[in-house]
Amino acid sequence: MERREFIASALAGSAFAAVATGGGARAAQEAGDANKREFYLLRRYLLSAGPQRVLTDAYFRDALVPALNRLEFSPIGVFNETIGAEMPVMYVLIPSFFVEKLVTVDERLRQDDAYVKAAAPFLNAPEKEPAFKRMESSLMQAFEKMPRLMLPPASMARSPRVFELRTYEGASELDHQRKIEQMSSGEVDIFNKAGIPQVFYGDTLVGDRMPNLTYMVMFGSLAERDQKWSAFFSSDEWKTLSNNPRFNFESIVSNTSNPMLAPTPYSQI
User: Fold this and answer.
1) Strand (E) positions, the chain?
2) Burial classification of residue 10, based on how many CB atoms lie within 10 Å of its CB (0-12 exposed, 13-18 middle, 19 or more buried)
3) pLDDT digit string (tens) for 211-250?
4) At what angle do helices 113-123 and 51-59 cross, to 10 degrees?
5) To 10 degrees, the CA torsion angle through 217, 222, 227, 229?
């Protein structure tokens, strides 16, 4: 789908409401298509330490995640930022094969009585004690070469794990597309060889600091992260790929951010 066509469709999100109610059978049919690309809604909540953080965490655990599951969004990732530019920060990752469901998710939540009741302390927080300072949201489409979220075995086993959320900004649309091509044509395989589980890759369609892409990788610990990144960058495959004239004609990534995230106890990723 072309970016221009997508934005036009997203702005008409209310018109998709009837289509999005296709139910579990349709979702299962789409999920069975190996070439079907997911969409991701990533929300970043900037909080204050203390009661505000406790309130938001309880909202995610007791209201939002259960309601999203009832609406057939799964798995839901909820993370605390442990190393980053601003803290405390929490992230919520919502995947779906249906962009119209993501565009209308807040409307659908408001129609869920159980959600409204459980979310009341968060939704009705007073102006002097808001639930969060600010929320930022981005909507992404999965890469063609990695069309769906891959749940790492450590997530399924609830093993200790940390996540790195990396965003690459391009100075131009050409640079941005070249970086996607580079990652799709070789980086994924190098990650696999280095033993780095990849959770998702998303091309940002609506959000800040565009053009950019965002992807998430997982490690057992911060020490393991250092070891595996070292293996990645020292590999012959990476050296060959990064020196390819198609990708090193200029600096195709103008800015990188990579906060480290810890999953909450109730995160499904």
Assistant:
1) 39-46, 77-83, 89-96, 134-142, 162-169, 198-206, 212-219, 255-257, 260-263
2) middle
3) 999 999 999 999 999 999 999 999 999 999 999 999 988 8
4) 170
5) 40
What gap in Å lies between CA 232 and CA 226, rounded to an integer?
10
- The answer to whether 104 and 110 are in contact (CB under 8 A) is no
pTM: 0.86
Domains of the chain: 3-142 (3.30.70.100), 153-263 (3.30.70.100)
Helices (H) and strands (E) in the chain, counts: 12, 9
| Amino acid (one-letter) located at 9 | S
Q: Tens digit of pLDDT for each residue in 104-157?
A: 999 999 999 999 999 999 999 998 889 999 999 999 999 998 999 999 999 999
Dist. CA 125–CA 142, nearest whole Å = 35
Name the β-bridge partners of 138: 42
